[in-house]
Amino acid sequence: MQQQHQQFLEKQKQQQLQLGKILTKTGELPRQPTTHPEETEEELTEQQEALLGEGALTMPREGSTESESTQEDLEEEEEEEEEEEVEEDDDDCIQVKDEEGESGPDEGPDLEESSAAYKKLFTDAQQLQPLQVYQAPLSLATVPHQALGRTQSSPAAPGGMKSPLDQPTKHLFTTGVVYDTFMLKHQCMCGNTHVHPEHAGRIQSIWSRLQETGLLSKCERIRGRKATLEEIQTVHSEYHTLLYGTSPLNRQKLDSKKLLGPISQKMYAMLPCGGIGVDSDTVWNEMHSSSAVRMAVGCLVELAFKVAAGELKNGFAIIRPPGHHAEESTAMGFCFFNSVAITAKLLQQKLNVGKVLIVDWDIHHGNGTQQAFYSDPSVLYISLHRYDNGNFFPGSGAPEEVGGGPGVGYNVNVAWTGGVDPPIGDVEYLTAFRTVVMPIAHEFSPDVVLVSAGFDAVEGHLSPLGGYSVTARCFGHLTRQLMTLAGGRVVLALEGGHDLTAICDASEACVSALLSVELQPLDEAVLQQKPNINAVTTLEKVIEIQSKHWSCVQRFATGLGCSLREAQAGETEEAETVSAMALLSVGAEQAQAAAAREHSPR
Ligand code: Q9C
Ligand code: ZN
């Protein structure tokens, strides 16, 4: 399997090199998107039209970088999904004109029906009761195959094995994984993945890795969907939502309802690579990006709802583009819609989930997520990121940013400062979890944990997009620690990371942890090493600031420089002292009671 994957990566690398050359003509590609280029082109501004030559409109052959088995899988899927796209375009009109009051069919009968059931579940059960007592809502329970319609017509998995979706009667309480090929279509029109490291191959590779290692067959595959414009507006402004949530095709319909106003004349920057976008990172494909960015959000929402409701043990969302930099009205750093933030809001609004913890271990600060919950005490945001005194992208995330108003203390920035010499690695991340992340998280006691799981802190990512040397394995161990929270209701969502080996290794480690598969142990060297001086300084500062809001961190202010082994020994000693004290006090009480009996009259 390893060897196969290695070959696949090699092949992919070679093909990436040639991407510029292999742009083929539309006619040769029967599988090109079924949205009608002729109609769409009319909608584009003159400026964009000039950019969209025949060659530029044509994307590199989809799936060309995949292993054969995955190829089959996805191709079958493409067919049905492309049909959906046109259907769903109609829904936008319904949602935006909002005449129906309720959400349009885009949200789907599944969500609408189950949403009510979920809400009832949470209210009745006083939030997240033990999972064994959970009764699946009607839409999730055993249903005859035919009754499920198109959402169940899933492709057969490679090797003749039926995929989980072909067995609608079996719903296992296991790790859910969500992935959808719609997200592959968000690609710069220049087609050069070297210029744009946030490319489709990232999630294709992770999906293949989970298949090839057999991990996927231990999981339940969840079908994604595009988030509705209404859902996106739980975090983003209406203008921002329409700007990035619509394509020329459905905008035409919206236009005819005279509701779009300034959206009709979208403006993007022309990029040096020949494509268009907000900036060179945050590229836009006028034909396909809106579907992709809405799919990324909808996939995470679907997965997280099932985990929060107790239908799945936990989950891993293989989604792109990432979201944590996206602010209310700003797209940046590859991000358009903040999937994790939207999901947290929807869990609260539709499922009555009380407290959500968001842990963000992408190497970059999640400025969008911080902004979305800055004055909200019901969502605790903890980010570990390279900060370097504001000199690392996006520049925000100072330790002093602790939240505002009622949200003071509910924003925790572990802002690594001091560059990469010495490098920040496993020991530093594990120490941060030991002294800051896990104590605060336990004290907060969340109902659900969402993880902005970027893997750009993994070794293999060089400055300026990384520079740290955390191992993939370490992320498995961090995941396992988070699973001690919220009754195990933990959902990871891919954010950044572009080194394919690194993000595949890390995804594999995290999914293994979620499945409670035995993890590769951390090296003894890691357990015996002390965190580096810059990390200790960073953690001292965080503890000094956050101890005003979280009393639990105070006890870690000393001993930050300990290795994990030393800390472990200290904890054992502490525990022994505590029980010895308890014994002493029990002894004292008994003695007192005995003395009292002796002196009391019969
Ligand atoms: N000129 C994520 O990992 N590059 N985003 C900044 C400045 C931004 C990374 C270049 C990298 C964004 C989700
Ligand atoms: Zn990042």
Automatic annotation (TrEMBL):
<dbReference type="InterPro" id="IPR000286">
    <property type="entry name" value="HDACs"/>
</dbReference>
<keyword id="KW-0539">Nucleus</keyword>
<dbReference type="InterPro" id="IPR023696">
    <property type="entry name" value="Ureohydrolase_dom_sf"/>
</dbReference>
<dbReference type="InterPro" id="IPR023801">
    <property type="entry name" value="His_deacetylse_dom"/>
</dbReference>
<dbReference type="GO" id="GO:0046872">
    <property type="term" value="F:metal ion binding"/>
</dbReference>
<dbReference type="GO" id="GO:0141221">
    <property type="term" value="F:histone deacetylase activity, hydrolytic mechanism"/>
</dbReference>
<feature type="region of interest" description="Disordered">
    <location>
        <begin position="1"/>
        <end position="112"/>
    </location>
</feature>
<feature type="domain" description="Histone deacetylase">
    <location>
        <begin position="196"/>
        <end position="514"/>
    </location>
</feature>
<keyword id="KW-0805">Transcription regulation</keyword>
<keyword id="KW-0678">Repressor</keyword>
<protein>
    <recommendedName>
        <fullName>histone deacetylase</fullName>
        <ecNumber>3.5.1.98</ecNumber>
    </recommendedName>
</protein>
<dbReference type="Pfam" id="PF00850">
    <property type="entry name" value="Hist_deacetyl"/>
</dbReference>
<dbReference type="InterPro" id="IPR037138">
    <property type="entry name" value="His_deacetylse_dom_sf"/>
</dbReference>
<keyword id="KW-0156">Chromatin regulator</keyword>
<keyword id="KW-0378">Hydrolase</keyword>
<keyword id="KW-0862">Zinc</keyword>
<comment type="similarity">
    <text>Belongs to the histone deacetylase family. HD type 2 subfamily.</text>
</comment>
<feature type="compositionally biased region" description="Acidic residues">
    <location>
        <begin position="69"/>
        <end position="112"/>
    </location>
</feature>
<feature type="compositionally biased region" description="Low complexity">
    <location>
        <begin position="14"/>
        <end position="25"/>
    </location>
</feature>
<dbReference type="GO" id="GO:0005634">
    <property type="term" value="C:nucleus"/>
</dbReference>
<keyword id="KW-0804">Transcription</keyword>
<keyword id="KW-0479">Metal-binding</keyword>
